[in-house]
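User: Here's a chain of 235 residues. Predict its fold as tokens.
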Amino acid sequence: MPRFHYEAIDKDGAKVIGSAEAPNKEVLLASFRSHGLVLVRWLDHGKQRRLFARPSRKRLRTKHLLDLTRDLSQLLKSGLAVDRALDVIISSATDKSIIETAKYLKDSLREGKSLSEAMSLRPGDFSNLYVNMVRVGEMGGVLPEVMAKLEEFMRRTEETKKFIISSSIYPSILIAVGIISVLIIMGFVVPKFAGIFRDLGVEVPLSTRILIQVSAIVRAWWWLIPVVGGLLLLF
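Assistant: Prediction complete.
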């Protein structure tokens, strides 16, 4: 017997989403009328699942995790309990992901979970190292100090990443500028001098002749340069 998925309204005006087996839709509609339901629309199975599905949650970015860690560290050092510190973060934070994470942690504490246990259930937001350090802080009664160490560790890690990125970008720019300069010289400047030498009919040194030949090759096969550069970037 086929199963039909539907959206209806009951006699109190409340929305009802469900499914039922029936020989056909007409029989099911008669059943709706006997139970005081008014059909709004038929749903396919995939759409019904999407209606009940929870909206996808964005992963907590490193910057926001650092902000959350810093706020927790400062609030705990000021003497606030963990749940009260989370309340302050919920009311003062401006980023939605931080607010959502703080609410999740607070709700987990109310359910009887420890802070580290709640964090371990979100491995996409909190790494194993982070969770284990929080667990050690809870067990040793030094959670404020551990959160301060975590904040310092994360801040230094981010500074190191930024330094490495900036250090690698500058040499790349210099290399690119150097290559472009050489190509301009070989493609435009050297041919002009070659024409001058040819018009004057003077004998040029071997090194100059080699340079002129290389320039001619560059002008003839210049289109290979971006192709080779693209292949090098891919591999």
